[in-house]
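Input chain follows. Return structure tokens only.
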Amino acid sequence: MNTVLSASSSADRRRWLTLTTLCLAVLVAQVDTAIVNLATRPVGEAFAVGVGALQWFIDSYNLVYAVLLMTGGVLADFYGRRLVFMVGAGVFTVASLLCAIAPSMTFLIGARALAGLGAAMLLPASLAIIRIVWDNAAERNRALGIWAACNGLAMAIGPTLGGLLIHYFGWRSIFVVVIPLSVAALVLAVPTIPETSDRGNRGFDMWGQCLGALVLGGLALAGIKAYESPGLAALILLAVAIVLILFVWIENKQGNAALVPPGIFTTSAFRGAFIATAGMTFGMYGLLFLLPLMWQSAGRFTAVNAGVALMPMALVFVIVSAYSGKIVSWLGQRFAISGGVTLIALGLLLIAIGSGQTTILMSEVGLGLTGLGMGLATGPLMAVAVGAVAVAWSGTASALINVARMTGATLGVAVLGAIYESFGEGAVGLQMALQVAASVQIVCAVYCGWALPGRESVL
């Protein structure tokens, strides 16, 4: 009896060490993303470059990440989730070091693109590993709640940490600070993460890879161009839609050997999680783009103060995400996700109402509600997505749910930004944009209530 208990306790310790390793890597990638925007001005001054070069300093990472995201998920399934995770962490570490020592703007842009490659391998693999290691749905929900909380933690500490580092140590320090953590994740991966792979009957779908990369790269490029060139962004989205139709047609002919097996989307649970994730990020990334923009344009806050004013959302997200697994065990996945997305809608409406007021009290309450909704829904959505498919497709499913996040974010910034601009780029524009965002959340909440199961469904 004691031997059984000792073995169980040892397995639990190893799983939590695994989660620590995964969370370290995800936190590094997300903190890096959260703080790099603050470095644009000092980088521009250091290399004497204009806005165009600075845009690519930010966007080279996003574009490479988007283009290679599905490839990273498939490689994890084919050649080993731990191997791809470690390669991603290693590439990210090297890229961060290269950013820190960059002698020119061109070199820095290339290093940021390399970091995007590392993230495209790292993030899908980390989510797939959780699917493998935690085969019990309730335990997986708890693990994913903590994993999701790392995203909120990055949102909370990233801007403040970045501001302090740049102020006291210069812009290069924001890349140096992540290196020890990413090296720690790389070293810990060997003893804590079991290696798994499952190629199944799939080959390397070259047509699917190329067309999928065009679709994802096009979405990212549309997001990049949305605010400065809305007409061009609309043309890019039209081209993306055409390529997407071709991609779906070719993938259907490939069957289960395709890059994205059609069987994944025939599962209502996965389809619901995909749509809800895209809808949630549509509203949230649109909000995070527009609210600070309006505050700064109106002269209410500086960039740093706007970041501090957004802190309640991030803090609530972190706290609630860590307990979302327990909440799911009490209320069920359907209620947690639908309720969370509904709370996001209510938060967006409160922010819309408060945007024209002299104080930001109502906006802060709305931000707290959105953080609560994200905390309730994010972890369970990840759990539904990776739990609704067979283990062999875990890397692919993990990549796809990240595709949903990226798609929602891109369309949110593009569509809500266009609405904001068309109504005068002030309080009225923000109100109209956030009302549309809230409507999307309500539709997703209703769909989740119909499509998502109360318990895990596995192919």
